[in-house]
Amino acid sequence: MAENLALPGVRRREWPKWLKLPVLIGFGIIGFWVLVCLSVDFWPIDNPIDMVARRLQPPSFDHWFGTDALGRDVLSRTLHGARFSLMMSCAVIIFAVLIGSTIGAIAGYVGGFVDGALMRLVDVTLSFPPILLAMAVTAALGPGLENAAVAMIIVWWPIYARLMRGQVLSVKSREHVEAAVAAGASHSRTLLKHILPLSWSPILINATMDFGQVVLLTASLSFIGLGASPPTPEWGSMISEGAIHFYQWWICAGPGIAILSVVLGFNFLGDGLRDLLDPRSK
Amino acid sequence: MTRYIVRRLLSLPLLLLGIVSLAFLISHATQGDPLASIVSERQMDNPEVVAAAKARWGLDKSLPEQYFIYIRNLLSGDLGTSFRTKQPVAQDLLERLPATLELVIAAMLLGSTTGIVLGVLAARFRDRVIDHAARLWALIGSSTPVFWSGLIFLYIFSVVLGWLPGPGRLDARATPPEGLTGFLTIDALLIGDMGLFWDALHHLMLPALVLGWTVMGIVSRLVRASMLDVLSQDYITAARARGAGEVRVLLNHALRNALVPTLTIIGFTFAYLITGAVLTEAIFSWTGIGSYAVDAARSLDYPAIMGVTIVGGAAFLLTNLATDIAYAFADPRIRLS
Asked: pTM of the predicted model, to two decimals?
């Protein structure tokens, strides 16, 4: 009882509702990988490209995750792989969000023929199963990480365009926007100052959730042989190399767990972010 | 309702044309020279060979011309000829369709039954250990890359335990029956060969398990949310007050209504299934459309890639349409505009 009778002005510190255990775990995992990305050069681990030991050695004290078919340290390659996966996904998400929300905002704000044409393009692009579209684009542009990134931007921008258009449409008819227009605000000012600030939160939630999916698709494309090429320590291509040496399970274990942890981490984070930003969800 | 369906159906041909055009644009906006995958490197210096190859594959015509030829051929069911197999792409795809369907249907059955059970349990024991465990298991299922879980499952069940066979659809020594449905399990039953049936079934188990795991993740999440929604309603309290047993309340009263929105799981999971099928087939040497797509992409076989992309897009479009319509019929509260 006494706890409820807090003195005026003395607010009890409350644990934020959205900050639950999964969100903390998500923060932990993603924080770890970001740290690895930034500092992996200074870690006391072997060079990821050099042959450092005998090939196909099982995990040992010297090589915690074992060595692969070329005698390279799997732990070192896994940690260096974070750079490719995370930076690539970051770039893909940023470009997809920028392109998608610009197009979506224009479509929603202008309306009419422009809206119709842009949204049909969105519909058509979204009609392809993501992996097939990504495979077709990467194969057409030529295999490689950069082209795989372009392919994934093409896969993801329409999702943000559709989201942004919906947001802009719903905010556009609110009174404060009408007031701004009546007060003589220009189109760009209305859109940038009065509509967009109220439209970004679902985009942010979606982008966090999609981050994991982009990591997965990057790895999948590399696994198929359309993404990173050897000797790049990219997780998908490491698993693809490991698949040949099937009985040496440890070659695949490191990169596989890495992908799983990143995807899980972003899912946890996305859930927490939704609780924080979306008042409708319980 | 009728107006909605008619409008959706009317937009279908336009979207299909959009799919074909975009696929054409992508595969012809190449920096890589498609000739490189037809003509061997040594022959590239020989102008006669190059010209002959260009004429053979229609690459000597202008882009708009190629586009109209492609559309015209498409209307008569011709998807072009694969550079790699030298067979019509449509024929390749038809030959490989049953294998993919067999895998996908098995995975759907496995994934949705386990997903429904997990979802019901999680909702019934909300915020208890069972709930958290079920949700974590489902989340791991949909976060694990299938090309990795496939390898791990193969290693555990095939190499370490020896319970299940390795990749492939049948034992290397077995001969698949020809001229039947192409579903090996069904074909084996049709010719009454039980040994063959078990062999096919055993080979199907692991890939279906791997692919089904991702489906399970999505289904259990949907069922849990929908069950929680239903369980909080008055008629459930009323049923409990009348003394209905817990199992009866859960299965007869709640699950029936909770399943209505999840009837559309087929639509929701279709994209995941295609992604999963492509990678699972690559891992398990499953001779379906997925591994065909991977082989085509690896060898830059543009007609084949285009064919798979167009067929996949059309299938995706139709499933989405069917899902939306089924959803509208199943739940009259949904208003379509």
From this structure: 0.86
